[in-house]
Amino acid sequence: MDSQASSEDLLGPRIDAGAESIHRLGSCVARVALVVATLAAATATGLGVTLALPATVGAVTPDSETQATAPSWAGYIGIGSYGAVSTTLVVPAATCAPGENSSASFWAGIGGYQSATVEQAGVESACQAGHPAYWAWWEAYGGSPSSGPLTEVRVDPGDTIRATVFDRGGGTYAMTVTDATSRTVQSATATVAGALDSSIECIAEDPRGTGGQVPYTDYGTVTFSSCLAGGVESSSGTVLSDGLPVGVGTLVRITGVTGGNGVNAAVSPISDGTSFTVTREFPPVYTPPLGRPVIGMAPMPDGSGYWLVNGAGAVSAHGAARLHGSMAGHRLDSPVVSIVSTPSGLGYWLVASDGGVFCFGDATYAGSMGGRHLTDPVVSLAPGPGGRTYWLVASDGGVFAFGTAFHGSMGGQYLAKPVLGIDTDPATGGYWLVASDGGVFAFNASFLGSTGATPPGSPIHSFDTTTSGHGYWLVSSDGGVYPFGDAVDYGGGSGVTSTAPMVGVAVDAATDGYWLVSADGTVTARNATWFGDF
Fold first, then answer.
1. Of 46, 339, 420, 496, most Cβ neighbours within 10 A?
2. Gap between the Cα atoms of 103 and 338, Å rounded
3. CA 187 to CA 201: how far, in whole Å?
């Protein structure tokens, strides 16, 4: 299955994985409605599954195995000049949460390993609005991609499936799926210009949409058997007979790490050179999409994920971030205006404009302004040193300290524009206040610059600091990014992925890049790992 290529996808060794499942559906669009929500933007613009290989992979000799990771594939790759591949698998049952839209693919293919073409046949286990769905498909990617469902194959969980791809010569490939349980079979043929029969694959895959993996269906374990190569010349030049176990040649074992969904796919050792299992591990809590508008985001402290929140207090978790609860469905006197992660990443605070503070996970309650008279609404929270206390700030610059030191405020002083946020200076333990004209006010914190003297054309809407504490970004509602100190401008979001106003920025501590989120829930990753939109 192909992916929407990003700049990160185009670097280093690649597994190129064919066209997205949205292209397979054809006349089955009504049956597989999940793609409307999760893959609508996944028009193929190229291939790209980055493979993390050990440094010794170039020296791998025939009859050996090496291991690697990829963001969406899990299984085995046989490297060599291959004219056919086949595998048998048992269709795993999909476990679906209410309202869940997700997908998982299981297939055999030729090519795709460090090449621009791949030919595949397989089955899908998916969730559509919370209901399990299964179907067979084929795909040929390269030049003009072609694909479609194999509607004559009746697929149910527990069925035994045989998937086969065969090079008929002249760039023409036959792709067949046989359901031995329902006794149905269907084939498709396609011509692929410039195809390279350089590898075969037997793979479980987390499909990819624009920018990253779609939600990965919880299928438990899938069993592959009889992963065979036919018409093969190995990398050592030896001509092999049809039906040779893939495990006798140059073999790459791929363990899937789906960074977009915080799910691992563990691959067992191969048995008799043909059989193995793939187990989906660490299933995240499925979170239905947020209602619009989204009002902010909070990152995991290690950069492994983030949370998004809307004004009703509904929270969605992405990547390794876990859902610890929300205010969705609860009556709120005032809307939620901010979400802030705890230093451990095991919880978060939600803040409402009346100063109410709601704690989830390991976030501690140290007090609030809820029920008290406020001259102006509260706009944000910043954790104090140690992460068990915090400051609140109102739009007039007033700061309220709960369990931590008060370093000053702009309350009662003239402001050209209202304050929009507060953030902790990790280097000093103080804090910065930021106004919508880009004015920055440092309290026991380092002043590194501002746009207050020459405000941008669009108001500043969000603010975050670099991991060192020696820099920060200001982001305007039109997606403009203004870096100060050691912050680096990796690009904005104005009109690139969304036309909705930008409402949040969050640092990716793993890369020192950042994410931008717009009011429609679109997340733009800048030198950061994309973990999905709302």
1. 339
2. 32
3. 19
